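Sample entry (171 residues):
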Amino acid sequence: MAELPGVLIPEGATAPDLCADALSELPVGVAAFDADNVLVFANQHFFTIFETTTAVVKPGRSAEDLSKYIARQKIFADGADLTELLAEIDRLDPGETFENTLQLRNGRRIGQRIKKMASGAWISVLSDMTALAKAEEQAREAVYRWSFALESARQGVWDSNLVSGEMVYSR
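Predicted structure, serialized as tokens:
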């Protein structure tokens, strides 16, 4: 196996191939643009968030073209395009990040974090905040039901930390 600092690369594989494969499996949308605002890479989750395909979001397309597509498709709830966002990215210094929230027409809220690289390239990471909010609500509901069941039964639970010997009781 070839070695890079912190990375083992199997024989016959290349670091870019492995990185692309890893990025494709992330549960967040990831897109990378070069210093000329041309798309270099976008993973499957990026397509899913914007409800589009690789025919539209493909390497070689400019961020401006993608902005026009998004405006035509009315992907954002307020009908906005990405013109102001692209201007904000241009104002970033290398190493700086920009975060915002996108409200999509389908009701989903998407958190976006953009980082400008030293080369002038930039990376956009998209997280579906709607799914996160739903999961948090489900967790709160589960805790409520668990607490209600314990209170109703006049029961409690205990937990033991085997390393420290600490015992925790709910009642």
